[in-house]
Amino acid sequence: MGAVSAFDAEKGIISAGLCGFDINCGVNSIRTNLTADEVSAKKKELIQELFRAVPCGVGSKGKLKLTPEQLDDVLKRGVNWAVENGYGTKDDIEHMEEKGCMDGADSSKVSELAKKRGAPQLGTLGAGNHFLEIQKVSDIFDKETAKKWGINDVNQVLIMVHCGSRGFGHQVATDYLKIQEQAVKKYNIWLPDQQLVCAPVNSQEGKDYFAAMKCAVNYSFTNRLVMTQWIRETFERVFGKDWESMDMHTIYGLAHNVCKKEKHLINGEKKDVIIHRKGSTRSFPNDTVLIAGTMGTASYILKGTETAMQKSFGSTVHGAGRCMSRHAAIKKFWGGDVKKALAEKGIESQSTHPKVLAEEAPGAYKDVEQVIESVHGAGISLKVTRMVPIAVAKG
Amino acid sequence: MKYKFIEDLTSDVMFEAYGKDLKEVFENAAEAMFSVICQLDKVKPLESCHVEAKAESAGKLLIAWLQELISIVDTEAMFFSKFEIQEIKDTMLKAEIKGEPIKPELGETVVKAVTYYKYRFEKTDKGYRVRVSLDI
Q1: Which residue among B5, B105, B116 sits closest to A194, beta carbon to beta carbon?
Q2: Which of A66, A191, A267, B127 has its CA 20 to 30 A from that of A376?
Q3: Torsion of CA A390, A83, A25, A335, to 10 degrees
Q4: Above 70 in pLDDT, residue A1?
């Protein structure tokens, strides 16, 4: 797990540093009723078409041209804006953390620079560890739960999208780190590390950050839903069927970098707290928990538990986590070799350039199987299904 | 040496940059960061942009300068390869940077932010040495 922290919602703090730079970096999972054989036969064409349909890479601009008023609407109303404009459906909204929109987002608390960076990037994947992956179900551990989420058989094809709030969220975080740097002095808060800058949650600086962070959360939920719709349209073109008949519904969409007000039991007393989850996923009882693996390895869908409420503020892991820095990975791996090794495992890969494959080489990450066994064993989330990649697109 | 990358598992990317004076270390740090963002040697200095930054100390000014450069990649939709500080004091700088409109094939990775993780800003016998971590 990355970091999970909870502070009293009245007397505590809220920290831009503890939430991180990529606000609402997260994952969406979309199911299909297609089989691995049906998709594998067209995987090369499919991943190339997806790569064209979903803009990715450094500085990638979306196909949407948002006016300032439309951007404000996205920031305030999140995926509701998307659905009203033909991206996704009400059913998608029902299957997202916070229903894809946090209340209390206030775009007047966001800098013009953040808006300028964010407006052209809605509907873009970005680069680095963000990806779009076509997966097949390899194992089902909890048939009843899997069925509830529309996962019926092994070899069923799912799609996973991992990305965040792009330059918009990065700028919101950068702006408020500066503001909270001053707040720490103003309110005389001692810090062990400069990265933990914060402000009292009920100070003006704290309230402003929370309202701006929610804008980035809503931007990111919308970003992933817009791309989800483009993925559906791509499948329609490649398979010659409409997406509803391929059952391409959202299983779930969630955040793994976020601050939220929640109630938790602390020393036997229910308390309102400001939870910061950074590199961590909400794991409330029966929550759908999506765990992204690496390019060549498995991803998982887990189920949230009561144990997580008792042990980890209703939180669990978010991914495999690196065991090698990106710089070391580039030195150790060559993109062409990584692509070839993936192909030998039957995984089609597409990237803006080979180096991103080297940076994200499976060998640069911890063993996801061990990570999942740890959280399953600890009971903070339980295994439902395991998926393995068929094809992956990276920025 | 203008800069070198340093291994640190927790940090996504960490580099040290050097310079005989503030002007040089700021220019070299910018070059180090852009070698992460794009293929520096292939980005042509065709168009220029003016950049200004302010902060309360030289150490914080370096972070403000690099953050300004991260933002300008998005706002101008350009990659940059030449960085010339025209005026610099401990608390402000003015610079001209040159590059070309973004071509996806020249991109490397998105730098999300400059962080304070193990940040160092040191004056040495030979000038300045800085250590910077990037969140990517």
Answers
A1: B116
A2: A267
A3: 30
A4: no
Residues whose CB is less than 8 angstroms from the CB of residue A215 and which lie 6 or more positions away in sequence, other chains included: A75, A76, A105, A106, A107, A109, A110, A168, A172
Q: Are A347 and A136 in contact (CB under 8 A)?
A: no
Contact B132, B119 (CB under 8 A): yes
Closest among B136, B125, B122 to B25, alpha carbons compared: B122
A60 to B79: CB separation less than 8 angstroms, yes or no = no
Residues 6+ apart with CB under 8 A from B48: B96, B97, B98
> Do β-strands A348-351 and A381-394 pair in parallel, antiparallel, or remain unpaired?
parallel
**Amino acid symbol at A308:** A
Contact state of A127 with B5 under an 8 Å Cβ cutoff: no
Digit-coded pLDDT (tens) for A247-272: 999 999 999 999 999 999 999 999 99
C-alpha span between A92 and A43 (Å, rounded): 25
Nearest to residue A255, comparing CAs of A278, A275, A231? Answer: A278
Q: How confident is the model at residue B11 (pLDDT cuts 50, 70, 90)?
A: low
ipTM: 0.92
Which A residues in the span 105-124 are in contact with B, Cβ-Cβ below 8 Å? 113, 116-117, 120-121
SS3 call for A266:
strand
Q: Which two tokens stand for residue A95?
A: 């299957």
Closest CA to A133 of A347, A353, A322: A347
Locate the chain B residue with the closest alpha carbon to A116: B75
Concerning whether A376 is annotated as a catalytic residue, the answer is: no
Please write the tens of the pLDDT for every residue from B45-67.
999 999 999 999 999 999 999 99
What φ, ψ does residue B44 adopt, rounded to 5°? -85, 140
Interface size between A and B, measured as CB pairs under 8 A: 93
- Which residue in A172, A145, A130, A111 sits closest to A26, CA to CA? A130
Q: Which of A170, A276, A318, A376 is catalytic?
A: A318
Q: List, for residues A163-206, the tens digit of each pLDDT value.
A: 999 999 999 999 999 999 999 999 999 998 888 999 999 999 99
Query: pTM for the full model?
Result: 0.95
Q: Which residue of B has its CA nearest to A170?
A: B112
Q: Which domains does chain A carry?
A: 3-122+137-321+365-394 (3.90.1860.10)
Phi, psi of B11 (to 5 degrees): -80, 140
pLDDT over threshold 80, residue B10: no
Q: Is A68 on the interface with B (CB under 8 A)?
A: no
**Is A170 in CB contact (< 8 Å) with chain B?**
yes
